[in-house]
Amino acid sequence: MGRPGFLLALAFALPAALLGRIPDDAVALKNRGLAELENEKPEEAEATFRRLVEILPDDPLPWADLAIALLRQQKYAGALAAIERGLEQAPGRADLLAIKGEILQWSGDLEAAVDALEAAATAAPDDVEVLYALLNQATLAGDDAAARRALEGLARLRPENLVVLLQLARQAIDGGDRATASRALLRIDELLWQAPPIAERAMAAARDALEGEDVRQARVPVMRLENVLKVTPMFRESLRELRTGIQGIPLERFAAEPPPSRFGDALPVTFRGEVLDPRPSRGRALAAGDLDGDEKPDLVRVRAGDEGAGDVLEVRLARDGWRLAAELPAAGVDGLLATDLTNDGHLDVIGFGAGAEAVWLGAGDGTLSRAPEDLGLAGGGTAAAAIDFDIEGDLDLALAGAGGVELYRNNLAGPLEAVGARALPAATPKRAAAAVASDLDRDGDLDLLLAHGGGLSWLDNLRQGQFADRTAAGGLAGVPAATAVISADLDNDGRPDLVAAAGGLRAWHNRGGRFEPWTLLGLRDAGAAAAVIAFDADNDGRLDLATAGEDGVRVLGQGGAGRFLLRRVSGAPARASAIVARDLDLDGDLDLVVAGAGGLHRLLGTGGEANGWLALRLRGLTKGNSKNNVLGIGAAVEVKNGRAYQFREADADVVHLGLGDQRAAEVLRVTWTNGVPQNRFQVAGRQRLVEEQVLKGSCPFLYAWDGERFAFVTDLLWGAPIGLPVGPGQWAASDPDELVRIDGLAVRDGRYELRITEELWEAAFFDHLRLWVVDHPAAVEVASNLRIVPGVAPPVDRVLASRDLRPLAAAIDGRGRDVTGAVARRDEVYAAGYVKSPYQGLAAAPWSFVLDLGTAPEGPLRLHLDGWIFPTDASINLAVAQRDDLAPLAPRLEVETAGGWRLLTADMGFPAGKTKTMVVEVPPLPRGARRLRIVTNLWLHWDRIAWSTAPADGDAAVVARLLPTAAELRRRGFSALLRRAPNAPHVFDYETVSRSSPWLPFPGRYTRYGDVRPLLAAADDLSVILAPG
Fold first, then answer.
1. 408 contacts 378 by C-beta, under 8 angstroms
2. Cα–Cα dist 605/594, whole Å
3. Is 282 helix (H, G, I), strand (E, B) or coil?
4. 148: phi then psi, degrees, rounded to nearest 5
5. Rg of the chain taking only CA atoms, in angstroms
6. By three-state DSSP, how is residue 449 classified?
7. Pair 593, 583: CB distance under 8 Å
8. Cβ density class 868-894: b for 16+ within 10 Å, e for less
9. Domain 24-241 is of which CATH architecture?
């Protein structure tokens, strides 16, 4: 796992054409010098690089690495002279400037070090280590502007790094920047999914302070939070991500070397076995994963019972050297699956066998306990796969058995629900030997692949809870009886290929959703296989194969050009029936664990640690989100370095990727199961990527010229979704007409200018646009009658007006706090007070917001409520629809009487998306009543609440309805997202735009760019159709 691995592989990675231009002795000297630096022999490295300078004086590498050798001997003047010679060969090169900055820092010239590092950051704005070095040096030198720029760059590149986020929060609080501090603290809150109670208390105090009026009150809680977190593994991991911890990072490639077209060459790895337990295992009852949260692979297997005793599930923890930690009854179980059915971040274990099933729930501390009634599983099984088939954020279960395949839907509340009769084809294979969940056609949902006595079957996920048999159409008809199958991208083209044990190993090449038989040399050497896995044994970026069967254990290393070669395996059992790959000794390459009649063995790999690697742990959000399962099972993982590429599907708690002779992955992209991608740059080693809470789909946005800039106004068409599911087979109603108020609109060159953008993962349709001009007295407040009332037909758009608006005498939020000041005026200080459930948009329980009018009004009144709603989305709606204990509760208005609270208005409604003024007509209150309350379980937030008993609709006149004089559709990009407080809505900065899409392509046809004014002139179903961006 160390850097020497990167260096040793370089000699084999240079193309033949390049070797012809660079002398062999230069290549040998470079590798020797790099190894001497790695082995902390700077004196010897100095001599080596001085010889290399004589051979290649015009290449910057010899000079730069000579400078590092001198720096490590504290020969600062010589080091500076050497790096200057390197910069003469490659002026302005970022890595050379970074070395210069480090030399200057060690020599005590902090200001010059900052200048050099700033130049390096300008040349390489995506280099994390350069930016972090600049941040530290600028802070020491008192250069606040340079430190701020460095921190902004780090926040862009490492948006989930704890060290960066804490520094960003402190800097923003000191500067009174509520929005930036809120963004940082909200992301920290998402990352701390298992934070200690003291950290949660500090976080709550910081959040409360930011939601108040004085931002600087958050300073002390954030400092406490940082002190608490400094001792945590997450903080230390974040530090390692920002700095390598070595003095001077040497150059590893000559200037003439082209970008890599592959990650590296195959290495001759070997595997050496040792017995963990000689007693036999049952069938394929073996699984691995982190059961106790120490990020080390633990083992579970079913051991055949001793004479007179039943079979038992063994738990073996890595922290104890995989010695036996627990035994649990497991009668009839001969297959195991480790996954997270409860979506709590802890691995559970599902056991199955002919006529047997068992579910053990993990507590996260290495212990397992039998689930009540095994979560409703019945009938036994022969194979199982975890699959979020309905894309609603938790893992469901496919269980093959004697009667065919059953699909169990998971609602995270009690037993799993058998839905196979409704979701699967009428006839499914019986007694399937293997089940795999994989997106075989790369259409964004997981399909089911089955190996059985009749060959292979492909059940294609059509979404909306339906699968179709695509076996014949997909080219898989006529396959011999299969005992095992895997889905894996063997040729790194971004599509999963197939390998099955079907009369020997056979392969099928994925040609874009149709499979063709694929001749791969060496597969016949696998022998008779009962189980097969794909893994990168030598970390070269290509998947290798391993089998377990009657012929023992075979490892087939991919050597390129479609050829597999047997790798040396010693000490393995003569027969085996189950096999898994994990990095048991944490040295950076994958090892093997095998089980069967010959007992339980581990086979430690040697050789692969010489290459680079990336161990990725995905973490979906569990607090107020639940759009993706916690472990990210089913997510697509892609890595790019130059033209080199690899694709993997997350199917376990760790995704292991070999990087060959590359020091880091240039680009890492994870596409979560709900279709939202996340990108990171320059990543290596052990990494944890935590899902970001983003608005995947909501509404188009409206911006208006305010005299200085285009300012965000609000979102549009919130009540007009097309195809938004609220439950299986149920869709939200759509109101295509909407009237929104625009404040602060200013004239620009004799015109009013508006901008409408589509920036989320959706398409927007605009048929007719008009700007209403409303004339009203200054003492009269006007608002649209827009509000969302579920189940009630929307009214015709009109303008409402009220006089004599009064603030509330008192307001109490859902947690019993006095928030009168927060709702007294429009100031983007919001009040709420709900407790989040696991699902975005829904509170854990109904909550109330109390409004004290101060006096008992006579007759009807009007409430003017400025607020916003953080909504659920399609996947969450589907998840919640499966539960009886968490249905959305539309807001209702109650009044306090002498006899207690009673219903006043059942259909109060809620704001249409982001902050808008909602007017609610309130009937006369009971005599003497003055307190109202809003009851709901939705995430509602209030900015200002006022009331009036003086409607003045007649004082507001619509004097014009203006059609646009010009309307042009053009490509723009995506605005930067902001939240001005932790409980404020997401808003967008029109002036800060990125051309890079945060979304996957949204399919469909869209209106061509250019003049679209004729399409907006009338409501005639001739629409402008906007794509994201």
1. no
2. 13
3. strand
4. -65, -45
5. 32
6. strand
7. no
8. bbbbbbbbbbbbbbbeeebebebbbbb
9. Alpha Horseshoe (1.25)
- Reduce the secondary structure of 753-773 to three states and give it as a string: CEEEECCCCCCEEECCCCEEE
Contact indicator for 918, 908 with CB cutoff of 8 Å: no
Fold assignment, 613-692: Immunoglobulin-like (2.60.40)
Cβ(416)–Cβ(379) below 8 Å: no
Strand partners, 320: none
Report which of 552, 545, 510, 512 is spatially closest to residue 528, judged by C-alpha positions: 552
Q: Where are the domains of the chain?
A: 24-241, 613-692, 698-724+732-770+963-1028, 781-957
**27, burial (CB in 10 Å: exposed 0-12, middle 13-18, buried 19+):** middle
CB 124 within 8 A of CB 95: yes
Q: In whole angstroms, how far apart are CA 941 and each of 229, 681, 757, 955?
A: 30, 36, 25, 30
Task: For residue 536, give both structure tokens.
Answer: 């990168």
List CB contacts of 706: < 8 A, sequence separation 6 or more: 744, 745, 746
- What is the Cα–Cα distance from 589 to 611, expressed in whole angstroms? 8
Give the range among 306-310, 384-388, 767-771 with minimum mean pLDDT: 306-310
Q: Residue 214's closest CA among 823, 820, 829?
A: 829
Number of H helices, E strands in the chain: 18, 61
**Could you tell me where the beta strands, DSSP code E, fall in 464-563?**
466-469, 484-488, 497-501, 505-510, 515-518, 531-535, 544-549, 552-558
Contact in structure between 611 and 9 (CB atoms under 8 Å)? yes
Where helices occur in 822-951 by DSSP H, the ranges are 874-881
**Of 156, 234, 152, 231, nearest to 188 (Cα)?**
234
pLDDT digits (tens, 9 = 90+) for 261-292: 788 889 999 999 999 999 999 999 999 999 99
What is the SS3 string spanning 582-631?
ECCCCCCCCEEEEEECCEEEEEEEECHHHCEEEEEEEECCCCCECCCCCC
Average pLDDT over residues 339-353: 94
Distance CA 987, CA 985 (A): 6
Q: Cα torsion at 875, 878, 881, 885 (round to 10°)?
A: -30
* Exposure string for 214-235, b = 16+ CB within 10 A, e = fewer: ebeebbebbbbbbebbeeeebb
SS3 readout for 311-374: CEEEEECHHHCCCEEEEEECCCCCEEEEECCCCCCCCEEEEEEECEEEEEEECCCCCEEECHHH
| Type of residue numbered 278 | P
**Is the predicted pLDDT of residue 11 greater than 60, yes or no?**
no
DSSP classification of residue 707: S
Q: Helix (H, G, I), strand (E, B), or coil: what is residue 874? A: helix
Cβ(31)–Cβ(5) below 8 Å:
no
SS3 for 860? coil
- C-beta neighbour count of 363 within 10 angstroms: 14
C-alpha to C-alpha distances, 177 to 139, 168, 616, 978, 981, nearest whole angstrom: 19, 10, 33, 11, 10
Q: Which residues pair with 667 in a beta bridge?
A: 640, 681
Per the CB < 8 A criterion, the answer to whether 932 and 853 are in contact is yes
Residues linked to residue 962 through DSSP beta bridges, in sequence order: 771
Q: How many residues does the chain have?
A: 1029
Please choose, from the candidates 375, 362, 386, the residue with its C-alpha nearest in 3D space to the C-alpha of residue 298: 362
Q: Give the tens place of pLDDT for each residue, 596-620.
A: 999 999 999 999 999 989 898 888 8
pLDDT tens string 538-564:
999 999 999 999 989 999 999 866 789
SS (H, E, C) 450-465: EEECCEEEEEEEEECC
Nearest one of 408, 291, 345 to 626, comparing CA atoms:
345
CB 557 within 8 A of CB 565: yes
Q: Which CATH superfamily is domain 781-957 in?
A: Galactose-binding domain-like (2.60.120.260)
**What is this structure's pTM?**
0.76
